[in-house]
Amino acid sequence: MEVGFIGLGLMGRPMALNLIKAGHTVLVWSRRRESMTPLLEAGAGDCASAAEVAQRAAITISMVADAPDVEQVTLGAGGVAEGAGPGHIHADMSTIAPAAAQSISAGLKARGVSMIDAPVSGGEVGAIAGSLTIMAGGDEAAFDKIKPVFEAMGKSVTRIGDAGAGQVAKACNQILTGVGVAAVAEALNFATRSGVDAGKVREALLGGFAYSRILENHGQRMLDRNFRPGFKAWMHQKDMRIVMEEAHRLGLALPSSAATAQMFNAMVGSGLGEDDSIAMLKLLELMSGGAGE
């Protein structure tokens, strides 16, 4: 298929490269011209705006930071809606609030464009490997048409329901991963401060009911002091803000999520926002009187 890709950051760049590897014709645009270079070198088509991307491709994808960015590249000046023709499908794979996804979807629908909200899980590693988990919301017929494109980027592709449903699933994902990171960081810090080998504690816990992929993968990275960002702390902070805003809107008590959101706030406030979210361990070490390096 001929696919347009808008937003070529940490996640978007490898996702677009996987579309090229799968044999799709890819057209790209990004606000940062230098972000386009690896894609252009791989054979992608060069576009001057999101509108041009939509004009030249029947399917477009956006992968940007937050809801205002999605709204700008879809409904704003020079956006997808300006260039899209009849039957155009736009997939937004960013993580935004469900209500924002529904609003943008309605705005695009009024201009003849079908939108699928399709946030992902798996981080930079999953984006590079093409093994992302993709959670989609939107029209079923449009989803069926775009599903082969998703399958070039992810190993698990699920339509959850109507517009906004993909973002609800992603919020649930961020609750589990955020609280999970906090729990693993607390456990390893507790082990170390108790004077025992945190690596051996992790090894023992992997054999019992405490096992999780976060303990296995991120726990080892914490022990290795590998805080290179695959998913930056400020991004997880943003996602937990979405969770808490939705909780307030729905009148829900999410106590574990609330505490975790505060920890991510503290990470960003302590200058750890550009580190991986697993650098929560460093924050806990600082709070416990350690070096946190």
From TrEMBL:
Record-annotated 3-hydroxyisobutyrate dehydrogenase-like NAD-binding domain positions: 164-284
One of the GO biological process terms: organic acid catabolic process
One example GO MF annotation: NADP binding
Active site residues according to the UniProt entry: K170
Domain of life: Bacteria
Keywords from the named record: NAD, Oxidoreductase
Domain 6-phosphogluconate dehydrogenase NADP-binding: 2-161
Any single Pfam family the record assigns to this protein: NAD_binding_2
Family designation: Belongs to the HIBADH-related family.
Designated name of the protein: 2-hydroxy-3-oxopropionate reductase
Organism of this sequence: Parazoarcus communis
Organism lineage: Bacteria, Pseudomonadati, Pseudomonadota, Betaproteobacteria, Rhodocyclales
